[in-house]
Amino acid sequence: MSSLLGVIIEETETFAKAVKQLQKRFKNVETDCDEFVHNIKTIDNLGVNLGSGVYKVRIANSDKKSGKSSGYRLISYLKLIDNKLYLMYVYDKSDLGTVSEKQIDALIKKTILEKTNKE
User: Fold this and answer.
1) What is the domain-level CATH number for residue 45?
2) pLDDT at 66 exceeding the cut of 70
3) Most Cβ neighbours (<10 Å): which of 28, 40, 71, 86?
4) How many structural domains compose the chain?
C-alpha cells in the first residue's frame, strides 16, 4: 500500500469538459468527484489498475442515490516521475459501459500532449 501524500492532482481539459457535460444532468458530479479526490490516501484508493499507471474507479452518483455500481467511472493516470495524478476522464455508467483500451490509450496521449504543450 503506497502512500500518495505529496502527489499533485491535476484535472485535464478532457476531464473538465466531461464534468461540464455531466453537470447538465447531474448537478452534484463535481462535488462527487471532489469528495473522491479528497479521500485519496493510497494507490489502493485509485481503483482498478488497468496497467501503465492508468486506474479506473467507481464513484457513487449522489444524484441517483443508487451506489457506486450505477454511478460514475473516473479514469486517472498516475505518473510518479512527475509526482502527479492526472484526472483524465469521467463518465456515467449508464452512458458508457466500458472504456476500451484504445480509448484509454488516446486519453493518455491527449493528456501527455496537453501537459507538454503547457510547459
Assistant:
1) 3.30.2310.20
2) yes
3) 86
4) 1
